[in-house]
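step 3/5: co-fold with iron/sulfur cluster
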Amino acid sequence: MGKKQSDMNRRQFLHKLGLGVAVMAMDPLSVLAGETNRPQTYGGGDGQSQMTYRVKHGSGDKVSLLGFGMMRLPDSQEEVNQLVDYAIAHGVNYFDTAPMYKGGHSETMTGTALSRHPREKYFVATKMSNQRENLWNYDDSRAMYEKSFRDLRVDYIDYYLLHSIGGGGVDAIKARFLDTGLLEFLLKEREAGRIRHLGFSYHGDVSAFDFLLDHQDEYHWDFAQIQMNYLDWRHASLNKSGWRQDADAEYLYNKLEKTGVQTVVMEPLRGGALARLDDELYQRLTALRPNDTPASWAFRWVGSHPNILTTLSGMNQMSHLEENVRTFSPLELCTEAENKILEEIADVMSGFPVIPCTTCHYCMPCPYGVDIPGNFAYYNEAVDQKILPLPDKQAADYMARKQQFADGLRQALPDASTWATQCVDCEECLKKCPQQIRIPNQMARIVETLRKR
Ligand code: SF4
Ligand code: SF4
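step 4/5: write tokens
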């Protein structure tokens, strides 16, 4: 696979991805500029596994194309150790955490597991988290930064990110990182080698994303993390579920590539939605590759893009890790025909009224006890099961479907004090959602579905 691909010239590679025409048409100069510095894909980086790797510009890090997202870890340190051991033994070497993940325990659990391995066996990524405005001052942020080193048990961080840039637009970046002097501090830390690569993760207002990249001459971002999957590629904008993300992943990816900034991908399965396809859509995939899961299709689609450095997957079960390792060992690029099918599936899915919640829990706790991700997960399940959307009020099964929805909610969330009906529209959760979901509006939608008539 590695040899085969390295023999491919640039035009053949783009053609195979089905990207050739689009990228060439977009900006021929940017394509030519990247020609000599193109990341390579090859298997067997550790001489044993068949993991696929990409090369980081500048440092030459050989980063596994499958990265381990440490947000949704199991509770037991022993289980985390086992997952990390398996990952490293099978060539995964990129581990992404943040001070706020897993209720503040992810960095410690990650550090405990990784420190049992030689330091050169892994790259660790963590972040200056951005969720609580009362921590936006210099001293508290410095303290958060220093604590990451202690919790991760390292004396340098391989990949450090400004966390979740985008909410609040350019003004929030200025208030959080520029006016406080924090970005200046982090740039100096990179110069000093305590941070090896500096980047940012982005959700939301595209003016913030553009602002950071348009100042590339000043900041020299080494990488950026974006939400990218075959559904968000062209369907991230306003849709029927009322969520807002200003830019399609296609725009973000192309701008990063043109600016020479390598991309780390989060949410390759869009919070799991692309791992649980509707039967009809699933059958279209199995007709082509009978043994492949929907998740492996989604990963192959992401990994087929050449400017991707790594693709994060939050794997809290050994079976998921094993399956993902298989998909990436080595990664088989999507063909043009396969890309076309995934594009058609995305078009169909974009018409589904699902709520794009990734169950990150950033919005929790709700002061009124609402289990926000739990309500949304059930709502999306009802869409999967075709209980929703409800038919026309005149339809014979209208009331039966409403009842089915209410019964299902009782089963999914037995404690009624966690239901959407408890939402008082206080908007406490609004600013915390990186997916820009208008949470109270969506709660009202669920309540409306539960009404008797
Ligand atoms: S708007 Fe509703 S869901 Fe959000 S925090 Fe307030 S009560 Fe909870
Ligand atoms: S509603 Fe938003 S913040 Fe809350 S769990 Fe879902 S994606 Fe995360």
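step 5/5: annotate
Residues 366-368, 370, 372, 423-429, 439-440, 443 surround iron/sulfur cluster (ligand 1) (CB under 6 Å).
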